Amino acid sequence: MATTQKVLGQLAPVAATLTDLYTVPSGGSAVASTLIATNRGTTATKIRVAVRVADAAISDKAYIIYDLNVPGNNGHVSTIGITLGSTDVVGVYSLSGNVSFNLFGAETT
User: Fold this and answer.
1) What is the spatial distance between Cα 36 and Cα 103, in angstroms, rounded to a whole number?
2) Is the pTM of this model over 0.90?
């Protein structure tokens, strides 16, 4: 098995839509170390981050960040250090659609 440190995902999702940022490859695993959410807009917005185990449907228990306020022209850095198993999915959401999400970590395949 090979482990690669890399950008796991980059995304600027549309407004108010939970969107998949990263899915662990089947049979693999990953450690997500840092998530950066950058609000490109001039006004504050809210973000959400969810982890869906084994690509399960979204549910309340999946959210690790919920309606966190990110000021305009600013960013939020989360050092998360979460372990992810095969086909786990990290999903992201922004109320305004002006947020770029970047997820960094190590993937084992």
Assistant:
1) 7
2) yes
